[in-house]
Amino acid sequence: MTQDFQMSALKSILKRFEPSRKSLIPLLQEIQTEFGHIPPAAIRPVAQRVGVFPSEVSGVISFYAQFYTTPRGRNVVRVCRGTACHVRGARTVLQTVERFTGLKDGQTSEDMRFTLETVACLGACALSPVMIANKTYYGKVNPGRIEAVLRNLK
Ligand code: FES
Predict the structure, then answer these.
(1) Are residues 42 and 22 in the same domain?
(2) In this structure, is residue 69 part of a structural domain?
(3) Are residues 55 and 84 both part of a single domain?
(4) 125 has pLDDT over 80
(5) Which of 79, 88, 123, 147 could form a disulfide with 128 if both were Cys (CB 3.0 to 4.6 A apart)?
(6) Atom of ligand 1 nearest to the CA of 121
(7) How confident is the model at residue 84 (pLDDT cuts 50, 70, 90)?
(8) What's CA 47's distance to the chain center, in Å?
């Protein structure tokens, strides 16, 4: 879905969830699936639907790393900056991705092709240095391989 926030789409999602506080997280997950992120304009209607204050909805969104309030690129590239990866060249990995995408950590390209993020540990230290592109892990990466991976992500 595009960046545009569509209130009618939101309303139809809201109707599918019980007007109860326990619907809050599943409802936010559904909104994120639909819109690719949680538009800030959705916070108040969500709060009304489940019967909590908007501040509680915002609190839940910021507490859980799975929720995003800004649109993300079609391809999310995550570079590990953990210790094992750091000693095996994570800095070069990050610089390579930054150079290719023109992005810094946390940024999304204007054409929505890429979002770049760094992560404390991707849980695959034996494969360091590691990056993830969407859901695929790439271990023991080097600049040539990184560029080949990124070129294939449209
Ligand atoms: S430190 Fe990079 S995967 Fe663990």
Answers:
(1) yes
(2) no
(3) no
(4) yes
(5) 88
(6) 4
(7) very high
(8) 23
Residue 5: pLDDT band with limits 50, 70, 90: low
Query: Percent of the chain, pLDDT > 70?
Result: 97
Largest CA distance in the chain: 52
Question: Does residue 128 lie within any of the structural domains?
Answer: yes
Does 114 share its domain with 50? no
Please identify, by atom number, the ligand 1 atom nearest to the C-alpha of residue 85: 2
Alpha carbon distance 150, 133 (integer Å): 8
Residue ranges around ligand 1 (CB below 6 Å): 80, 82-85, 121-125, 128, 130
Domain, as residue range, for 130: 75-151
Residues whose CB falls within 8 Å of the CB of residue 1, separated by 6 or more in sequence, listed in order: 9, 34, 35, 36
Domain count, the chain: 2
Q: How far is CA 88 from CA 39, 79, 146, in A?
A: 38, 13, 15
Closest CA to 69 of 81, 53, 57: 57
79 and 146 fall within a common domain: yes
CB 89 within 8 A of CB 129: yes
